[in-house]
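Posting this for the archive.
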Amino acid sequence: MSVLLAAPLLAAGLVSGPIDADCRFDGIALQGRVKIVTSFPDIRVQAVTSFPDLRVQRVDSFPDRCGRWQFVGSFPDFTIQYVESFPDIRVEYVTSFPGLR
């Protein structure tokens, strides 16, 4: 019954994923320098192997496109905390073709 109720909302675009078409979550561009923290993150992330919201490629330089993250210890563009439940976004780490699913 709930599937029938959700179908018109999905078709109208009223229900969407947590990441918008510009590769932003809550106004944060999901590219750039990222720091892993244990408390007070900008984004709570769950690492998955299927059905991700974003495919992420770890890079050492030029994190200039959607899903390209350079992990740093200081001066991050945003911070993440890994969680097992209730994530803001789910990511899958890949070696090529990062970006929205």
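Residues 9-13 have pLDDT under 50 and may be disordered. The beta strands are 24-25, 28-29, 32-36, 43-47, 54-58, 68-71, 78-82, 89-94, 99-100.
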